[in-house]
Specification:
6 helices; 31% helix; disordered C terminus; binds zinc ion
């Protein structure tokens, strides 16, 4: 496999807050905005190159657990899009990009992982080990389970909001996109059960 050439992404993408939402936690997207992300406005090739550039800026290392990519074992990371949610204005804004290994990504998208056969104990177990890397973090397995339940409650609350997705930081990555294409209104929720 020969990966695409990375897009030359600046360390500081204008408009990106690389301190936003640090740490590994369950990060659920409302059903109405599921799929409204960078891949919605970029070609597959553009996203592939951009994602690789975003991973290159952290030396292809998971920003949650520190594990490097291992191409010889076909272990490649993903680029997580971390959004902020303003429940008053209904703005779901792409705040930052995070290079994530697939095991950390399973915890981030816990509901989605379970739908696709993820084993809860393994996913939570990995998350617990990652949390233990921080000696100040005293989270227990029960605590992680409670966090997951709380995350689903937050998502449920957000389901009733008519979201507008703001992908404007994409303009600062150097990928040719039109600013006016980066603000997308979500369709009105119609009972979808998507569980990212
Ligand atoms: Zn990881």
């Amino acid at each position: 496999m020969s990966p695409v050439k990375p897009w030359p992404v600046p360390d500081r993408v204008p408009g990106e807050d690389r301190l936003y939402g640090g740490g590994l936690y369950v990060d659920l997207v409302p059903a109405a905005t599921f799929g409204i992300n960078c891949r919605k406005v970029l070609t597959k090739y553009q996203w592939s190159r951009l994602s690789r550039g975003l991973k290159a800026r952290v030396d292809f290392t998971c920003e949650f657990c520190g594990m490097p990519e291992v191409p010889d074992r076909n272990i490649y990371h993903v680029t997580h899009e971390r959004f902020s949610y303003d429940e008053k204005t209904g703005i779901q804004r792409l705040a930052r990009f995070i290079c994530s290994c697939r095991r950390c990504d399973e915890f981030t998208h816990f509901g989605h992982a379970l739908v696709f056969g993820g084993v809860p104990e393994l996913i939570l177990g990995h998350a617990l080990v990652v949390r233990m890397l921080n000696p100040d973090d005293t989270t227990t397995m029960e605590g992680l389970e409670a966090e997951a339940v709380a995350a689903f409650e937050v998502r449920k609350r957000r389901q009733s909001i008519n979201w507008t997705v703001d992908l404007s930081i994409l303009a600062g990555t150097g990928v040719p996109v039109r600013a006016e294409d980066l603000i997308l209104a979500a369709p009105i929720e119609s009972g979808s059960v998507a569980t990212q």
